[in-house]
Write a structure and sequence with these properties.
Layout: H1 2-33, H2 56-65, H3 70-85, H4 93-103, E1 112-113, E2 116-117, H5 122-135, H6 138-150, H7 154-167, H8 174-187, H9 194-211, H10 217-227, H11 233-254
Helix pairs in contact: 1-3, 2-3, 2-4, 3-5, 4-5, 4-6, 5-7, 6-7, 6-8, 7-9, 8-9, 8-10, 9-11, 10-11
């Protein structure tokens, strides 16, 4: 145990020492990448390809993200949060690859000791989903859709679905249909999660505002089921409010 603590302390010291370098390079990285296109046209980069990166910040982040230690992974997310606050994660496919890996940590990359998964960290996945919503773009959207389908933790799914609404991309109605699926799956439970349902309602609301409306019958039916479902009053009223806003938006487009 003492040896593990020494390793963690060493890593923290190294990260803090590199912090100033990361802060100096993050703006330059964003500036150099911005010429390659908008957030929806990022080139896909995998976590493995970051081994070849000459960028010290990406090497550090990649090393932290592939650690099996929760605290080390949270350090990576704290660094990326700082980058998000100064706008330097936009159009940065390397950082996107780190977030995509952390958003599915314990799901797509599993480390086992015997029959137990030892890298199942829902709080890491939740924070990564939140930052993917900040980053935006098609790659982030696709990762978040994967989270909706594979993650079993309501708090992670709630963060992922809200992030999808914030990103506001609904090509071929894929995001709206996934949100409807999550809502229907939750409503069918004897004790549905109110927080997850409310996050879905907010996501539909945001998605509609950003895409000019959501008229998918599956989504409308899912909202109606929430309005009459086994949820607390605030959730049911929010479902009615979202339905009203969707109808109003549709009427405005027609007339």
């Amino acid at each position: 145990m003492a040896e593990k603590r020494r390793i963690i302390v060493t890593l923290v010291v190294l990260v803090l020492a590199a912090g100033s370098v990361i802060a100096q390079q993050s703006s330059a990285s964003a500036a150099s990448s911005s010429g390659s296109g908008g957030s929806g046209s990022n080139k896909d980069v995998t976590i493995e390809q970051l081994y070849l990166s000459q960028d010290i910040e990406l090497q550090i982040l990649r090393s932290q993200a592939t650690s099996n230690d929760r605290q080390v992974q949270m350090l990576a997310l704290q660094t990326i949060r700082s980058m998000s606050q100064d706008g330097s994660i936009q159009n940065n496919p390397g950082v996107g690859a780190v977030l995509q890996a952390l958003a599915t940590e314990g799901l797509q990359r599993q480390v086992r000791e015997g029959n137990q998964i030892v890298n199942n960290y829902p709080d890491v996945r939740r924070e990564a989903c939140n930052l993917l919503g900040e980053m935006g773009g098609t790659a982030a959207k696709d990762t978040l859709l994967t989270v909706l389908l594979e993650d079993k933790e309501p708090m992670v799914v709630a963060e992922a679905v809200y992030a999808l609404g914030k990103i506001g991309i609904n090509d071929n109605n894929d995001v709206a249909s996934h949100i409807a699926w999550v809502l229907n799956h939750e409503t069918a439970k004897a004790a549905p999660d109110n927080n997850l349902a409310f996050a879905c309602l907010l996501a539909v609301e945001k998605l509609s505002a950003k895409t000019g409306g959501v008229s998918d019958p599956e989504v409308i039916n899912a909202l109606l089921n929430v309005a009459s479902g086994n949820y607390i009053r605030d959730v049911r009223l929010k479902a009615i409010d979202v339905i009203y806003k969707l109808r109003k938006q549709q009427q405005q487009q027609k007339g």
